[in-house]
């Protein structure tokens, strides 16, 4: 699928927008072998948004997040968080960021209260029981504050990781596969938690393999492939620009083949000859549909039912990932 957006400009908000909380400019990273894992990444994240970064395994998502969070040294380019350079102002930028890793790494024998409070101390902040209580209540962990981590369910442990990441009051929260291994009900609960964090003023950046998660939660979507950002777009605009619509025509009587008079519409025949599918651009105003229905009638094709289907974010993601560079 063609991409009408410039990779170098796609992630840059309009000039009238607020100063981005996160700005990545011309970031590249190569291994010692010479293999390039990130190639000229440009990305701006606005304050108070939920941004979903999608990409196949090996696309560079983890490396990008690790550089921003100060875990991996950057190569070429610049990264700024809250207006501060991540290299020159390392301590300041790291204090602005919370990171929730995919792995459930917690202190099994510590209590929830102790491990979250300790995480705050790691950033050199004075104890603040009121803030810790607020975080635990926000994440529905208050009743578990004296429980040892080892006694918690997987979903609760993941909430503890989020609590630890929020203990030092960051402005940006990275969630790496936040609902991996979590059942559907708990996943929906986590979505509510993330929305609550955003409503509380935290900018949330998540990576996920669950396309429906990005479709449900994100304000904007970014797609990374082969170390390059291939698209950044507001979610609904992305669906409108790159989506397709399909009209499925259920026939009263089966056809052996598409009538020659209908060849111009590039219809596909399925359902043992009982369904015709017409694909059209969702940006167009139902192009050719009235004429198609007239030509179907003229060709003697009688309809039993007509349904339409809008392409999903998963359809768009797959087409972008599989497209040639």
Automatic annotation (TrEMBL):
The keyword Nucleotide-binding applies. Residues 22-251 form the ABC transporter domain. The keyword Transport applies. Keywords: ATP-binding, Nucleotide-binding, Transport. InterPro entries: AAA+_ATPase, ABC_transporter-like_ATP-bd, ABC_transporter-like_CS, ABC_transporter_ATP-binding, P-loop_NTPase. Gene3D superfamilies: P-loop containing nucleotide triphosphate hydrolases. One of its GO terms (molecular function) is ATP binding. Belongs to the ABC transporter superfamily. This is ABC-2 type transport system ATP-binding protein. It comes from Aureimonas phyllosphaerae.
